Amino acid sequence: QVQLQESGPGLVKPSETLSLTCTVSGGSISSYYWSWIRQPAGKGLEWIGRIYTSGSTNYNPSLKSRVTMSVDTSKNQFSLKLSSVTAADTAVYYCARVLPVWDAFDIWGQGTMVTVSS
Amino acid sequence: AIRMTQSPSSFSASTGDRVTITCRASQGISSYLAWYQQKPGKAPKLLIYAASTLQSGVPSRFSGSGSGTDFTLTISCLQSEDFATYYCQQYYSYGLTFGGGTKVEIK
Question: Above 90 in pLDDT, residue B57?
Fold first, then answer.
């Protein structure tokens, strides 16, 4: 069955760029939308954006100026870059698959904690 | 952005209870609503999409209803494994938004 695994640095300095990768296993990355969602400790969920395997993207307007997503179909991976990070970007970051037709998230990675601190 | 408001934010219930969680959208979202269950330290799990369609593998004691601005998630007979936090999410417009969550605790 399809599984997702996030990877990347757990600690990022303020003003730098957070970079994460999600590896898709057990199935093809093609023909789906893929998303990033984050959750600060003890708080709710925030959608960051989504990318199609063609490279087409939609971003959360509140983060759009700082977010870049990309996809590498040859590696079955997609990635997130969030620039100019502050402590407010400290959160667990999840990658997820978007259910076709319905923009719900049917498969999630386990999540990776990213702390922004000097 | 469309604001999703869940109520209550938390409550206590007993195994076997019938429980209902409400989610209200700040504007009409048709049936573009999903419900998730999240347990501590785990990723959310999709329960329901399209307001009332049960995701594959989810027990039938979970059900969803509503359209427009008002939605409910019902658990017909609460089981021990159902104590968790539940989130609604709208996908009517971007940015997609989640409710603040409802924590179901053991009485």
Answer: yes
